[in-house]
Amino acid sequence: MPRPKNPYPGVTRVTDRHGKVRWRFRRKGFSCYIQGAFGSAEFRASYEAATNEARTPAPYSAETHGTLSWLIEHYLRSPKHKNKSDTTRRVLRRELDWLRSVAGSLPVASFRVRHIEALMAKKDGPAAANKVRKNLSLLFNYALKQEVEGVTGNPARAADRMEESEDGFHTWTEGEMARFLEHHGAGTKARLVFLLALNTGASRADIARLTWGNVKGGKIAYRRGKTGVAGEYTILPELAEELVHCPRDVMLLVHHGEGRAYKPETLGNWFKDQCRAAGLAHCTLHGIRKGQATRIVNWGGTPDEVMAYLAHKTNAEGVTYTKKANRGRLADSALSRLGNVQPAPKVGQAKPKNGAKS
What is the pTM of this model? Predict the structure, then answer.
C-alpha cells in the first residue's frame, strides 16, 4: 500500500532528548517546532506561521477549518496582506468582511465557477461584482500557495467579468471645473479641497492627512498612501490664494470641528454634496485627478509626467491618458483631410453631374 501523502510538507516527526514526540518544520534553512497536537487548529496555525518563517504563530483561527471565513482570517494575518498600504488594507478588510458575512461558512474546497458568479450577482453594478471576483481570486491564489487541503485551482479566474465603463469615475471637464469654482468662492472649504486635489493629484485619503508640515518653500509635498510614492508640487497661484485663508494654529489644512481630521470616506461624501450644490451631481473628488491628468496630456504632457503627477509607480495610467488624447488628435487630423471633398448630397437630392451646377 502506498504511503499516504504528508498534508503538511516540511513537517517531520522527531523525538527530543527527553523522549518527547514533537513535530519539526524545515524548509530552505529555516527550522522550528510546530505547536499543538498533530492536525489540531493550534497545529495548523503554527504550521502556517512556519511557512511564512515566523517562529511564533498568531492566535489560531476560531473559524471552522477549511471554510471561507477561516481562509480570510489566515490571509489577513499573512505577510502578503501586511505588506499592503494602510489604505489598501482597510478597504480590502471591509470587502472581505462582506464576503465572510454572505459566504463565510462555505468550504473553500467546494467552490466552483458558478459559486463565484453567484456571489458576484449579489452586488449592484459591474464594478462591484468584478471586485468580488478579484478578491476571491486573491484568496484562492493564497490558498494554492499555502497548499490548503482540497484547493486544486482558482475558480475565480474562470468566472466571467462584468463589462464595465472604460472610464470609471467621471473625468471633470474644463467647463465643470470653472462652474465649481464659480459656485464655491474664495475662502470656502470646498474651493480649498478642489484646488488641493487639482494641484497635487491627492486622493481623498491623502487630502485628509495634509498639514502645514507638507507646505514648504512654495511647494507642497506628500507621500501617497496607496502607492507609497512621494510627490512634490509647486503651489499654483489659485491654491496659494486659498492657503492664505487657512489658520496657521491648526495643523490640518482640511478639517472639521475644532481641527478634527476627516475620515477619507466622510470627506468624499462631504465633497459630493458640494458638487451637487454646484449642479455637478455626477462629479466626484476622485474625478478631479483624472480631469487634471487629461489636461496635462492635452497640453502636450508625456506619460511619465502624468505618472509623476498621479504619484503612480509606473506610467501605465499615463499611457492610457495619452492614447485617449492621441485618438482625439488623430480624429481631428482625419476630418481635416476632408476639407476639399465635396459634401454628400442631402437625402432625396440627386448627386450633381460633373460640371453641372447644383
Answer: 0.57
Nearest Cα to Cα of residue 232 among 201, 204, 255: 201
Backbone phi and psi for residue 261, each to the nearest 5 degrees, phi listed first: -75, 145
Collapsing DSSP states into helix, strand and coil, what is residue 275? helix
pLDDT in tens, 224-248: 888 888 889 999 999 999 999 999 9
> Alpha helix locations (H) across 202-263?
204-209, 237-243
For 37, which DSSP code?
A: S
Three-state DSSP class for residue 324: helix
Is 3.30.565.10 the CATH classification of the domain at 63-162? no
- The radius of gyration of the chain from alpha carbons, rounded to an integer in Å, stands at 28
DSSP 130-163: HHHHHHHHHHHHHHHHTT-TT--S-HHHHSPPPP
CATH classification number, 174-334, choose in 3.40.50.20, 1.10.443.10, 3.40.190.10, 3.20.20.80: 1.10.443.10
pLDDT in tens, 3-14: 667 788 889 988
Give the integer Cα–Cα distance in Å for 52 and 56: 10
